[in-house]
Amino acid sequence: MQNKIVLENMTVDELKEFFVNNGEKSFRALQYFQAIHKNRIFNPDKMTNFSNDLRKKLDEYNDIKNCSIIKRIDSKLDNTKKYLIELSDGNIVETVFMEYKTHTSICLSTQIGCKMGCKFCASTKKSFIRNLQPYEMCAQIYLVENDLGIRINNMVLMGIGEPLDNYDNVTRFIDLITDKEGQDMSIRNITLSTCGLVDKIIKLADENIGINITISLHNPFDNERNQLMPIGNKYSIEEILDACDYYFDKTKRRIGFEYTVIENVNDSKKYMDKLVDLLKNRNCLLNLITLNPIEEFNQKSPDRNKMMEFMNYMNKNNVNTTIRRKQGIDIEGACGQLRINNMTKRGVK
């Protein structure tokens, strides 16, 4: 029996090698790549520019992995739409579509579950299962586009999982999604959020991929950050900032920092002053996030006045700071919430 491979994970050059090695013309590679990544045709039987013999050959070799939307929830407050997407092995990930005044964007998952263990994040409350493959990340975009009848040109790798913990698959996915023969997404429209895997940030810089990087900071003191984010026991804030400086020097891409504001935990002047000390001389953007409470993390969100006070203080002290617009808060908006609730209903531990 022929060993199956996932052709949807291949670049055009890899597909050329595959087709030539199997007795076909090299131009078939581009036709196949465009069928998937441009025309959204996922079944070789529907690729009418291929002969019947070639379609049979593709069926023989290609391990087709179908993904499907099993649930969509539309926000009544804005045009945010949250999707549960089932993968070919029955596992489920979340994907979120967001609409802004100037553009549309999609928030993708990169893993099934997460190993990082951040206390306030719903994504890590169920056990880590596996990394997503490149085609499964592409599928999240293509399924939403087909569902809404639009083309999406901005994305954030900020859903379930730590993207840099799935480095090879994520960078392969970026190669596929930015290929001019397919989706042709601009590298400048891709943002990756990480809790601070220093070695992988440096590797990204050395490979000069040039995406936008956002660091999940959430506390400016190592001893307290470690309690919220176990990754802090491996990499200090100083090491993360040094890696960010290295990334900026290599790519000239401004670094973002995310800071979830938790009432009476990390929102006093002590924390503001430390953040100023850390960030004031860096070409960066600090994005303040109002805590989205989850059952497993019994803390409160600050009110609007506190968020404005925090933002104004940082800007006054020369740290460029914004407050993230809350979207989809009526549809289980925190990463992983919808998936966890769905798994609970299905009796999955």
**Distance between termini?**
36 Å
- Main sheet: strands, sense, barrel: 10 strands, mixed
Beta-strand fraction estimate:
15-25%
Strand order in space, largest sheet: 1-2-3-4-7-8-9-10-11-12
Taken in chain order, the helices and strands follow as HHHEEEEEEHEHEHEHHEHEHEH
The percent of residues in helical segments reads 25-40%
In short:
The protein has 349 residues and is α/β, with parallel strands linked by helices. Helix content is 35%, strand content 17%.
Architecture overview:
The chain has 349 residues and is an alpha/beta fold. It is built from eleven helices and twelve strands. It has helices at residues 12-21, 27-37, 52-61, 134-148, 167-177, 198-207, 222-228, 237-251, 269-279, 304-316, 337-345; strands at residues 68-74, 81-86, 92-99, 104-108, 111-112, 130-131, 155-157, 190-194, 212-216, 255-261, 284-290, 321-323. The strands form two sheets. A ten-stranded mixed β-sheet has the order 1-2-3-4-7-8-9-10-11-12. A two-stranded antiparallel ribbon has the order 5-6. Helix 9 links the parallel strand 10 and strand 11 (284-290). Helix 6 (198-207) packs parallel to helix 8. The chain is elongated and about 70 Å long.
